[in-house]
Design goal:
The chain has 5 helices and 5 strands; from the N terminus they run H-H-H-E-H-E-E-H-E-E. Helix content is 48%, strand content 21%. By secondary structure, it is α+β, with helices and mostly antiparallel strands. The chain has a 5-stranded mixed β-sheet, covered by helices on one side. The mean pLDDT is 83.
């Protein structure tokens, strides 16, 4: 999937020069309405391009890209901001953290009925610390009591517990916040 996405982006980048030339010509000849329509079509093509998250860790890349594609298929805008290219942390624990956090984010977005739904994930590595921040649209959440709202509590509600245990196993910490329709989780891990 990642290789296909890289190829798609490479092709888009190659074609972009031609697309810009067409737009320059239309604008230079004062054909503004045609340029506007052309730009709208070009924007749609770019939006449909598969997003690729590259962290340098194939397991982390895979989980983020898979969850991102799933979120988009559910009408959720999925935004990534990655400022690292070599994640040396335990891949299994990171997959557990990211998988649970992104599943929770997708589920929260699906419960929101009106307005734009989005998930924003940022990963930054500063020295020996990995900082993961995820924000998503959400109904009100009591962050002091993060328990499942599902009826079958035996089969649900272990995601946040798993995130916290995994973070603690990597000398990390987890904090959550809810404000004005947005839930956020911040995870700091230390090597």
């Amino acid at each position: 999937m990642i290789n296909d996405s890289y190829t798609e982006i490479k092709n888009l980048k190659h074609d972009l020069k031609n697309q810009v030339s067409v737009l320059n010509d239309l604008i230079g000849n004062e054909r503004f309405e045609e340029a506007k329509v052309y730009m709208g079509r070009l924007y749609k093509d770019v939006e449909q391009t598969t997003s690729v998250c590259y962290t340098g860790n194939p397991v982390v890349d895979s989980i983020i890209n898979l969850k991102g594609d799933y979120a988009k298929s559910r009408g959720i805008n999925f935004i990534t901001k990655i400022n690292t290219n070599t994640i040396e942390f335990d891949a299994i624990a990171l997959c557990r953290i990211l998988g649970n956090a992104l599943d929770n984010s997708i589920e929260a977005c699906e419960q929101v009925e009106n307005g734009e739904k989005y998930i924003y994930i940022a990963i930054n590595q500063i020295n020996n610390k990995l900082i993961i921040e995820i924000e998503n649209t959400s109904l009100p959440v009591d962050v002091s009591n993060l328990t499942t709202t599902k009826a079958d509590k035996k089969l649900h509600g272990i995601g946040m517990q798993s995130i916290k245990q995994s973070a603690e196993s990597m000398n990390g910490c987890v904090s959550c916040n809810y404000e004005n329709g947005y839930f956020s989780i911040k995870i700091i891990l230390t090597e």
